[in-house]
Amino acid sequence: MSGSVAALWRYPVSSMAGERLEIAPLDASGVVGDRLWGVVDASSERIASPGREKHFIEVPRGYARWTALDGAAISADGSTWAKPDDAVVIERLSSLFGFPAQLKPFVRRGQEGFRPRYEHAPIHLLSTAAMRSLEREMPGSIVDERRFRPNIVVDWPDGEDPIPENGWLGREIRIGDVVLKGSIPCGRCGFITIAQDGIPLDVELLRTVVKRHNRNFGIYCDVLVPGEIKPGDTVTVAPASA
């Protein structure tokens, strides 16, 4: 059985809205430009965690993008963009978020400083089969991939397992010339329930994922062979070890 890449995402600022990609360059740390910055409350130095604290629940309404030429850019409305230290845009984001915001760059593994929460998980992969399963379990809910913040959405046929990627843990996943390896399940928090642009609040989503799937939905992957991937690339999974 095989599938294909349905969508690719990058999140230059952790917890802020991401950007959909036509080409995703991958290195050992994941999608290039992904989760390079974090949002903190300047009054307390607490890192934003929208899925765990209501104080940060508006952070996903901010926008971020990244280019190799200019690096990260941020926006409060998706149309006016500036550098992460631009005072005007930071003021607009602070008004949107409801607290004095500040953006800080994350440090690389082994360095001292502001550390990302997900450095153990370079790539987050989610299948369309898993999302369709959740739609069947929750008819009427909006099961939008943006709720789950995957880097790679794989179009995969339905089968016996409601979340087929659970069976890919410990196995090589080939996408074009790129090779990933499934590492651990992706445990979910309240982030998947909160409102975003065009997505309503839905507190029942997390309850369902906890009850039916032991809180896990999608998987994390390591990058074994880096390269570029794009929508439409074929996805194959190596057979399970005997």
UniProtKB/TrEMBL annotation:
InterPro entries listed in its UniProt record: MoCF_Sase_C, MOCOS_middle, MOSC_domain, Pyrv_Knase-like_insert_dom_sf
Domain of life where this protein originates: Bacteria
Domain MOSC intervals: 82-238
Entry GO MF terms: catalytic activity; molybdenum ion binding; pyridoxal phosphate binding
Protein name: MOSC domain-containing protein
